[in-house]
Amino acid sequence: MVTIYNLKPIFQNLLKPLLNKIAKLGITPNQITLTTLVFCVFVGLMLAYTQGAKWLLILLPLILLLRMALNALDGMLAKTYQLQTPLGAMLNELGDVIADAALYLPFALIPFISPTLIVIFVITALLTEMAGLLGKTRRYEGPMGKSDRAFLMGTLGLLIGLDLLPMTWVNPILIIAIALNSWTIINRCRKGLIA
User: Which range of residues forms the domain containing residue 75?
Assistant: First the structure.
């Protein structure tokens, strides 16, 4: 199934010049992972405190793109320079689910968005990541992986911030996203059992 994750090689190629500069500075993958996590939690707290300030929602696609770039860089740095560690793998997986929760739960505080649907969306998102870890190898099947969720929530944030999306559309979109998360969980579990 085609997802935004399929674009990862292209994205990584764009980041290669930056990767070499980071390596020369002696920055470690774990430092990038922890910096990304702190950044995402800070943005999430700002979203919660402002109850989804329009300026912050408009910036959300750029924030999520930066998060994706940093996520890619920590893995590329670890693999390219043989800096992989069990701690790094653990921080990477925990960082992903904590960052997802931090960035997406504040949408529950935006008027007219169902807090229940946001919580279910976040729970099913976390379960997609858990399902990806359960097989013999890490599973990335879609249709709603981490990159797809980032694209969806960034787009929602931008459209809400610019008043281009009727608020009555948000909850139905979330219901569809929850269904796609659930489909992803099933796909990853099914593939994890046979691969």
Answer: 4-190
Q: Two tokens at 164?
A: 């281009």
Two tokens, residue 76: 């590329």
Give the tokens for residue 77: 């740095």
Q: What's the whole-number average pLDDT of the chain?
A: 93
What is the 8-class DSSP label of residue 107? G
What is the C-alpha R_g of the chain?
17
Q: Which residue has the tokens 């653990």?
A: 90
Question: Is residue 195 one of the residues assigned to a domain?
Answer: no
By CB atoms closer than 10 A (0-12, 13-18, 19+), residue 152 is: buried
Q: Is the CB of residue 163 less than 8 Å from the CB of residue 102? A: no
Count of structural domains within the chain: 1
CATH of the domain at 164: 1.20.120.1760
DSSP 109: G
Residues ≥6 apart with Cβ < 8 Å to 139? 131, 132, 133, 187, 188, 191, 192, 195
Assess whether pLDDT exceeds 80 at residue 8.
no
Q: What is the DSSP letter of 142?
A: -
**Which has the closest alpha carbon to 143: 184, 175, 185, 190?**
184
Query: What integer pLDDT is reported at residue 7 of this predicted model?
Result: 73
